[in-house]
Amino acid sequence: MTPDWIGVDWGTSNMRAWAMSADNRALAHAASDKGMGSLSPDAFEDALIAVISPWLSDGTTTQIIACGMVGARQGWMEAHYSPTPTVPIAASMITPPTRDTRIAVHIVPGVCQASPADVMRGEETQIAGFIAHSSRDGIVCLPGTHSKWVEIVDGRIVSFYTDMTGELFSLLSTHSVLRHSVTTDGWADGAFAQGVSDGFAAANPLPYLFGLRASSLLTGLSPETAKARLSGLLIGGELASRQELWADTKVSLIGAPRLSGLYAQALAIVGGNAEVLDADMMTLAGLAAARAVLEDRI
Amino acid sequence: MTPDWIGVDWGTSNMRAWAMSADNRALAHAASDKGMGSLSPDAFEDALIAVISPWLSDGTTTQIIACGMVGARQGWMEAHYSPTPTVPIAASMITPPTRDTRIAVHIVPGVCQASPADVMRGEETQIAGFIAHSSRDGIVCLPGTHSKWVEIVDGRIVSFYTDMTGELFSLLSTHSVLRHSVTTDGWADGAFAQGVSDGFAAANPLPYLFGLRASSLLTGLSPETAKARLSGLLIGGELASRQELWADTKVSLIGAPRLSGLYAQALAIVGGNAEVLDADMMTLAGLAAARAVLEDRI
Predict the structure, then answer these.
(1) Are residues B31 and B81 in the same domain?
(2) Which of A176, A198, A212, A245 to mutate to probe the B interface, most B CBs <10 Å?
(3) What average pLDDT does this structure show over B26-37?
């Protein structure tokens, strides 16, 4: 099996690669836990080859399109940000020097915004996939460690906003005093819904947080209920602060299936409207769009 | 030097003790880093004796009044919470059994509130000190890891609210992605003031957080500016959510001097009015009030 090109989504904690046909179908998939966070710049090439070598042929140079934190300042080689408004995949990909002559690596730049200051790296590729897939304007929300809310007009990212909701949930449930009250297993749908409503109504989840600890001490609030309520409070608060973006339009959600489902549920609770898109499909379509940008260039 | 009684403020991470005269003057002070968090229940007595033994006399039993996390479920012996509305120091102190006949230990109960669910442990003693000191109704704010906002009417705690502002600041600046952008040294007054205004106006600091990281990447926002802005955003957001409490009255601040000063500055920025009280003086006056409660009982 010899792919026409290879797409790579290289994040902080892991890397995923797809062997792609000329008509952009995924022929094979491979993954590694060697994320950007664990690699020094000179270790990226070996980490890549270890994953994709079965797909390489001597005497042939295969184009590799990579997106994500691989292009961060702490990554393989920095791919600068394209300032908004911008098409999601700018032509200014960078090409780190490689020793293995079977590969030519191109790293997709991120996107930045001057005011309010914001950056994304990796999401721009999924957004390119969304545009290729739906050919329409809209609001895309990419829930995750750092959720992105992205406004797309005429195929360009015109503005975007980042919420640290996922990271806050993780910090609060594993490092704060709430860790004693929040389990990592189990779930309670009703508590999630109540949390969403409360966090949304107050437009701020913070005043409610310590109440989870107090309820656990005073009334034995169960850890799964506390967990679902904490998640709901944080997502409800996020939806309140981004209400202008989604109030009058359908939100396209691109993220891990479980988390996207929670955002869809939360949006329905507060009067929003959402569709959940397949995140891997958006990533592949975005990498294919980046491949097309590259072919136009070379 | 033989004290009439001994007051102890025993928190999660350290313990402080004062040798007190019969007229409630502090004759001597001692401290230890053996906080509740590092002690099993059977280790509290030895930890206490190690600090206060110079003040004890054979053949005499000295009364010890202790407040704080020493009375938590994970502490020496649980002192149950008094439900609001309540005088700050309820008479229901508990007395853990001790082997050393030179001491009799009494632990002050915390205070709890049913709705919204909330708890305090330690702050009730400072509030008792405030009431003894000022003999008036009012709003007391005790900034810290878990800030308390307390409404006092006729010498009783009628309601209170906890914000996890201090813990959030610590988690965000040392464990989140913002740790790369926030220093632990240095400060920028202007950035603090701007943060307070922004967090207060938005009534929610969360949408601003990632902007600190982005500004650091895009425009080289200095780590001390980011730190002061983060602190301002969180305190400004807290003041917004507790505005009903302080809008029409002077707030009495009881906490670490630097932090109380920041809260006073922030309150002034958003149109509030505050006095900063000496936290140690409030603790001692509160322990003396607890001693008086105990004497009435025994």
Answers:
(1) yes
(2) A176
(3) 96
